[in-house]
Amino acid sequence: MAGLCEGRVAIVTGGGRGIGREYCLMLAEEGAKVVVNDLGGARDGVGADLGPADEVVNEIKAMGGEAVANGADVSDWDQAKGMIDQAVQAFGKLDVLINNAGILRDRMLVNMTEAEWDAVIKVHLKGTFAPAHHAAAYWRDRNKATGELVGGRIINTSSVSGIYGNIGQTNYGAAKMGIAGFTIIAARELRRYGVTVNAIAPGALTRLTEDLGGPITEERKRSGDPKWVAPIAVWLASEESAEVTGRMFEASGGTLAIAEGWHRGPTAEPVQDPNLLGPIVAEMMSKARKNAGMNGQDLD
Ligand code: NAD
Predict the structure, then answer these.
(1) Spatial CA neighbour of 201 closest among 167, 154, 251, 152
(2) Residues 173-205 pLDDT 10s
(3) Which of 111, 112, 117, 152 is nearest to 135 (CA)?
């Protein structure tokens, strides 16, 4: 039986470890050819090592699949372009870009340094924009040359830390919420070429989360297996998902959900005098839904 992604060519950024590694393996199991990108740095983004990407490539080859390693820093403009070019050179085309690479530098706002802010914003936001830009330009050119919808897929990585908000992560949460907005806008822009853009807010036990959330129990290991996250990424990567775009999926061992976007709540007649606003805002506040908590339901 042909796999769900038979013959498709996919790039997975940060594919050497954690969730990205699982994406690579499951894509290959479903018949995709995979460019395994990973800078191979430490959890905070320092350093570089092609080892993790190479290991995943070897695992895919051992199971009879096709894969190549790429060591680009996805937040570097030219290296991101090189990664897109490598997929086309190695496998003849590109169908899927999964922007998954990420780092953490958690700190309370009052203590956060400029470097901690800049590093996280760069890897997540520019590391989503740069590969997405180069892939989108490639798909636009293909669409112009063939006159056909290209069936491209961009799958970005957000987080409940951003869309719902988590203490100690203003840098990371801002980047992940930025990726949510980027996803919605890029989906609208690229629809005309037959490219969908969605995002996943994953939950898994990886080196990013192993020291968060208390002791590592058997239950945490079970529900934190990245195998719970990968299926929605692989389905979104397939041709079957053509009608789904601009959406945010939450995926973990405990949840598969669509996180709905901002909606306009209670409204009032605008006024030009700020002294009038007290009772008007109080009235609107009494009718407004509260922001969701970290599980998407509990109200803060
Ligand atoms: P991980 O640390 O296991 O994997 C991330 C990989 O990205 C690493 O192998 C790292 O080398 C690579 N990387 C980092 N910066 C890079 C760069 N500039 N260029 C190329 N590769 C780079 O972490 P993970 O938990 O698997 O995280 C994957 C994604 O999921 C991240 O975007 C993360 O923010 C997001 N996320 C994870 C969780 C979770 O519960 N684990 C929750 C929410 C969001």
Answers:
(1) 251
(2) 999 999 999 999 999 999 999 999 999 999 999
(3) 152
- Kindly list the structural domains of the chain, giving each domain's residue range(s) and its CATH number in brackets, ordered by start: 9-259 (3.40.50.720), 266-300 (no CATH)
Distance, CA of 32 to CA of 254 (rounded, Å)? 27
Residue with tokens 């199971």: 63
pLDDT for the residue numbered 43: 86
Residue 300 scores a pLDDT above 70: no
Distance CA 71, CA 208 (A): 20
Six-digit token pair at 33? 């050819």
Q: Which helix (H) or strand (E) holds 175?
A: helix 170-190
Which active-site residues does the annotation give?
A: 172
pTM, two decimal places: 0.97
Residue type, 13: T
pLDDT of residue 298: 77
In degrees and rounded to multiples of 5, residue 202 shows phi and psi of -90, 165
At residue 245, does pLDDT exceed 90? yes
Give the residue, out of 208, 209, 216, 229, with the most ligand 1 atoms within 8 A of its beta carbon, to mutate for a pocket test.
208
Give 243-273 as a DSSP string. T--S-EEEESSS-EEEEP-----------S-
Instruction: Tell me the per-residue pLDDT of 246-296, one tens digit each, with 9 for 90 and over.
Output: 999 999 999 999 999 999 999 999 999 999 999 999 999 999 999 999 989
Taking the CA of residue 252 as reference, the ligand 1 atom at the shortest distance is 40
**What's the CA-to-centroid distance between 100 and ligand 1, angstroms?**
6
Ligand 1, residues 12, 19, 84: which to mutate, most atoms within 8 A of Cβ?
Answer: 19
Q: Is there an atom of ligand 1 within 6 Å of 75 CB? A: yes
**193: nearest Cα among 144, 134, 133:** 144
**What torsion do the CA atoms of 227, 229, 231, 235 make, to the nearest 10 degrees?**
-160
